[in-house]
Design goal:
single chain; 377 residues; alpha+beta; six-stranded antiparallel barrel; five-stranded mixed beta sheet; 25 strands
């Protein structure tokens, strides 16, 4: 990776040497496990509703009818009959609880949860979440969440003075939910096939994966379906030991193919490019012209005489001049069968600012000389 400091303070750009097939010799091999996953291997979203208690007068206000009703419902489960209108505590807050259920989870496993206020509570610091059922989109309860909140912020106010850090109405409970119903990701279809999906879809990479799998097992097991998926047939002898079969596939190394890209973030002045992204023959001429208009104001003071006429008075006189300055030498760069890294290094040597480099790259792309996708954020 190459890091260059721009002459313009606060701006910089980065060149990252990436492996692009066809442009790089001896490209690095990567495991299939690092560039994709098997279809069906996914996390599951869980959500629940609950109450956080123990707040120091920073909970929901009595105007929140949902919180008052929820408190009354909880107390009713312990044979305490209280009308919702009589609940005036500000030590309780209504919250939503979210979590992600892993692709494989067994009963009794613990998962992390995030707690967010849905009322007008000022802070959840010091609160404890009461037992909250965690449901999946199908309405089935898969976990129960409960525990003391960890809040990475605070908010204190008095007499119009407020001191706040981060978001005190959002907290987390590490290992705060217990899985009640286990799940097992199914990656083997009824036709005894699996589908390996790429994180970045690419036809060439998909074809190489299928060829590498067939070569590793010595038979035609894999077929590239499209730019994203590779279908793999599981032999009957390997179905009983599917874990070992999947492990062998994930360990296979291939050379992925990637589209050349140059990413520009104009807000921060950052340029990220593959170190070997090619550019065609191009000539860049860069100059600097500075124009300034300067005005000098002076006062014309008449000679004071005893009998001054009415038309004689003090006047303000403005004298303006235009200054034009230009660099004695313009920046000139000639690139022939070079890379973006070479071009930017050459522009840096003539002390070109990052903003100007961004403009030059745009012009090079418009001229059809940049052999990469130009992404501007």
């Amino acid at each position: 990776m190459f890091l260059f400091r721009s002459p313009l303070r606060g701006f910089f750009f980065v060149l990252v040497a990436l492996a692009f097939s066809g442009n790089v010799t001896g490209a690095e091999l990567v495991r299939l496990k690092d560039i994709g996953k098997f279809s069906g291997w996914r996390e599951n979203a869980l959500v629940g509703y609950g109450l956080v208690t123990g707040l120091a007068n920073t909970g929901d206000s009595p105007n929140n009818k949902a919180t008052r009703q929820s408190i009354a419902n909880v107390l009713a489960q312990f044979d305490v009959a209280v009308q919702p209108d009589l609940v005036l505590s500000r030590n309780v807050a209504a919250v939503m609880v979210t979590a992600k259920l892993p692709p494989v989870a067994r009963q009794g496993d613990a998962i992390d949860v995030t707690v967010t206020s849905i009322g007008d509570a000022r802070s959840l610091v010091g609160g404890t979440l009461l037992t909250a059922p965690m449901k999946a989109p199908n309405g089935k309860v898969y976990a129960l969440a409960q525990g003391a909140l960890f809040v990475g912020g605070y908010k204190y106010d008095m007499n119009g003075n407020v001191a706040q850090k981060n978001h005190p109405t959002v907290g987390s409970i590490p290992a705060g939910a217990i899985v009640e119903v286990g799940v097992q990701a199914k990656i083997l279809s009824r036709e005894n096939t699996m589908t390996f999906t790429l994180t970045d879809a690419d036809y060439t990479t998909s074809s190489r994966i299928a060829a590498a799998i067939n070569e590793a097992f010595g038979e035609q097991l894999a077929k590239a379906e499209d730019a994203e998926g590779v279908q793999i047939r599981v032999p009957e002898a390997n179905r009983e030991y599917l874990v070992d079969f999947v492990t062998r596939i994930e360990k296979i190394n291939i050379e992925p193919d990637t589209r050349a890209r140059v990413v520009i973030d104009e807000r921060t002045g950052t340029i990220v490019s593959g170190g070997d992204v090619r550019i065609a023959k191009v000539v860049v001429s860069h100059g600097d012209l500075k124009l300034s208009i300067i005005t000098d104001n002076s006062v014309s003071q008449p000679i004071l005489v005893r009998n001054t006429a009415a038309e004689i008075r003090t006047e303000t006189v403005s004298n303006s001049r235009v200054n034009v300055s230009e660099k004695s030498e313009s920046g000139y760069v000639s690139a022939s069968n070079n890379t973006v890294a070479d071009l930017i290094q050459a522009l840096t040597r003539i002390k070109t600012s990052t903003r100007d480099i961004i403009s030059i790259l745009r012009a090079v792309k418009a001229a059809g000389a940049l052999r990469a996708d130009l992404i501007i954020q």
